[in-house]
Amino acid sequence: MSSEEEFFAELRPQIAEVIGTAVMQLLVEKADISKGSIIEQIQVLWQEGNADLPVELALDVLMLPKE
User: Fold this and answer.
1) Left (φ > 0), alpha (ψ -120 to 50) or beta: where does 47 sit?
2) What is the model's pTM?
3) Of 35, 36, 40, 52, whose CB has the highest number of CB atoms within 10 Å?
């Protein structure tokens, strides 16, 4: 496993936690769940100053274009 793969493997649980927290908040609010709404919720929960690497990577993963 390359060092890049190890890096992302170590961050995967934190990225999943960020996405999961956003989904849970949307469920509590009884909002529609879509990639867009999850992205928006992450941006609301982690304002620019509070965003850390797992938050940024979660947003990057969600914003990847379909292949």
Assistant:
1) beta
2) 0.85
3) 40
- How many structural domains are present in the chain? 1
What whole-number distance in Å separates Cα of residue 22 and Cα of residue 20? 5
DSSP readout, the chain? --HHHHHHHHHHHHHHHHHHHHHHHHHHTT----HHHHHHHHHHHS-GGG--HHHHHHHHHHHPPP-
10-41 burial, b at 16+ Cβ within 10 Å, e below that, comes to eeeeebeebbebbeebbeeeeeeeeeebbbeb
Q: Provide the residue range defining the domain that includes 43.
A: 3-63
